Amino acid sequence: MEITLVKNEDNLYEIEFKDVDVSVVNLIKDRLINRDDVEFAASIREHITVSPPKLVLRTKKNPKTLIREAIKSIMKDLNKIEKKLS
Question: pTM surpassing 0.70?
């Protein structure tokens, strides 16, 4: 997996994910989109077969922190599901 910072301007942040399924990027976006400190969140893919997915954010806070919080929240939910399946 490779993550590339494409854009980091003011409060606009764009990250490209290589060798990551677009559904993972969508999960992160879905966690971010309803937060008060996120003005805009989208996952994009310029071409479905050749372009890696990107996460685009416009935030009021540090985007790296918000992304980490979203990932931790997703992991927490997945751990709950795993425990219920055990």
Answer: yes
